Amino acid sequence: MRIVALLACVAVSACANPERKAPYTTEPVPADKAGGFACAAESVQYAIGQKSSAELGSKLVKESGSASLRWMPPRSMATMDYRADRLNVHYNDDMVITRINCG
């Protein structure tokens, strides 16, 4: 039985194509080739000083062209991974937006 299983594994691996590329990449992709998502934080700077809300967050994502939104509360930790298509909205203890940037 073990020999049959071993032969099956060998047969499957013989069909594999080592020249085939993976369906993903770790290299940066320009926004126009990545589905159009990019972050334009400069277009939503008017929101600084406004009270944060879900409705405002949705509006900021749409207007900035970003793919996602990350709320940044005061005194909180965040991952340092940079994503060009993510909008970061920082706010203070009063839920007032203090800073908006991409990443």
Helix content: 10-25%
CA gyration radius, whole angstroms: 22 Å
CATH architecture group name of the domain at 32-103: 2-Layer Sandwich
Mean pLDDT across the residues is: 78
Description:
- The protein is α+β, with helices and mostly antiparallel strands and 103 residues long.
- It has a domain at 32-103: Trypsin Inhibitor V, Chain A.
- The chain has 2 helices and 3 strands, in the order ααβββ.
- It has helices at residues 2-15, 54-64; strands at residues 68-72, 86-91, 97-102.
- The chain has a 3-stranded mixed beta sheet, covered by helices on one side.
- The longest helix is centred in the N-terminal third of the chain and has 14 residues, at 2-15.
- The chain starts with a helix and ends with a strand.
- The model is unreliable at 17-29 (pLDDT under 50).
- Keywords: Signal.
- This is Peptidase inhibitor I78.
- It comes from Sphingorhabdus contaminans.
- Pfam families: Inhibitor_I78 (PF11720).
- Residues 1-16 form the signal peptide.
Features:
103 residues; Trypsin Inhibitor V, Chain A; Prot_inh_I78; 2 helices; 24% helix; elongated; Peptidase inhibitor I78; single chain; signal; alpha+beta
Concise summary:
By secondary structure, this protein is α+β, with helices and mostly antiparallel strands. The chain has two helices and three strands.
Reconstruct the topology from this structure.
Blueprint lengths: L1 H14 L38 H11 L3 E5 L13 E6 L5 E6 L1
Parallel strand pairs: 1-2
Antiparallel strand pairs: 2-3
InterPro entries: Prot_inh_I78
Organism: Sphingorhabdus contaminans
Keywords: Signal
